[in-house]
Amino acid sequence: MACQDFDLNSRYVNKDDSSLTYYQPFEFAYDYWCRKRGSYDIQDLKAGRDRKNNINESDYEYYKELIKTSSCWLCKAKFTILNQLTLDRIDNSLGHSKDNVRFACQYCNVARSNRDAKITRLKIQLKRYYLAKGLPMPITSEDTYHVLRNGITGGLANVIHRYNIKDETNINKMKLENTLQSANVMSTQVISYDLDNIMTHITGVDFNSLYPAVFSGLKHDFIKYTGHQIYMPVRCLDSSKFHFVYGDTDSMTLAVAGNPNKDYNHGFSEIITDQQFYDENFYKFFPDPSKGVYDVKKLLGVAYEHCGSSLIALASKNYWLLEDLDKKHPQTVKLKGPNLKSNPQINKDAYEDNIRNGTVVQGRNISLRQHQGKMSQIEVFKNGITGTHTKMIVLPNQCCCPFVWQLTADKSKSQAKILDKLLKRFDKTKKQIEIAEDSMKLSIQTILKYPRRLNLTEFVDEIQIQDSDNEIPVIIENADKIQYGGKTIQDCKSQEDIQKALQNLVQTQNVTHIRGDGEKGFASNQLMFFYNKNDIKTYFVNGSKDLTNHNRVVDSVIRTIKNAFGQDD
Predict the structure, then answer these.
(1) d(CA 475, CA 114)
(2) Where in the chain is the domain with CATH 3.30.40?
């Protein structure tokens, strides 16, 4: 059905064909003709074919005129500087004589070789048809396979968030963001950022029906029983309170920030945004306990695969799960390769050690094999836990960033990366220690001890940043990622926000001077009135391309963050 309009004699053009995109006409030069004629003589000599009537230099003018109205006899493509002319023999048992050759492009000539001309032409035309129509096709070229193989990451199974511990791990999200790196230079980055919600449990579901549109609301002809469309219950759930952990062809596992006072069996009941919609549609997908076990496997339904409190998933089909309500088997380890019963060293500690230190854990398999009537015991050592995840880019906070075209791993930032930079610059000054309370000191000690489990907002808020502190350049660089009160520092730069921050500042500190980098909000009439009222001298840099950068924040705002945004949320 897909090839019902296929015509063997038509010319099918791929819009991405480099010979058309960078089109330059083919120049049939005399030197080119002499080189090709010489190579054909050598071919026929090696193959033992008769060369008496082969083409020669005197045929140049004949073929020069003929090429003006000719194309490849196999694919009908015109000849260009990237799609050059060759001569294909009609009868492969004869030499390159004038009556036994015809024009063919280099790809088609090689593809045909000594094969049947009609079958080869059909394959070539089908390939060009598939490319022109955007249809899938079998791979027949080994070179094409190796080019594609570099981009193959495996099946559908994947891990997005590897470290999910109850009452510890924040719900994490990712976003693709364009930022102004310097004057007239845009930088695209994938940002991984933590929300304030902390996960309470793990919920895993398994799909009963592998329908093509089971993950979307798109219409599909195969979905005959629900109006050719499926409406997913996620519509009524608060997406800021769960994130995707692990998924396979027909299953997925989510980390949910539910009610910490309930056990992990309450599923999604505490993150509902539309209770009526939830009540009306939830049991159309999930098993209804009032209908018995047969409702678990209903058409287009999902069933609970596992529920737990914590999950560490290093890669596809490689995870540790804690189900502490299950007194018989509270911990589950799933790993392909090693026999888990004979390798007790593959446990939670091994998974955590791999995340923190990159420790590789080996496993040993013992089996019996018979060879020539002799039974032997074989020991095979395999890598059990390596932490290698070839399908995604693993960030320091254990969030896995998908491969994005033209984005490299250094373009993916996480809160942990920013915090690492802050920790490298962090220097507890005497003033910071004097101002800090015991709880703040303890917080900083915890931060320094476990740098991978930091909360960026709390860290910046607790370290009592001053104008000259070493942390200032790092905060300026990441002003569009550090959040206060649901806003980034960069967003907190309107007239109202700045005045609100300054108002808190003058109430707690003696402010006599304010410096600005050309941000319009600082020089507004509203703020100028505020400066005059409070006898504050102002210094503004206007029109400076070096300092006016919306991805940065001036040090006067940095100085007010703790006193304003951190308290007025």
Answers:
(1) 67
(2) 18-149
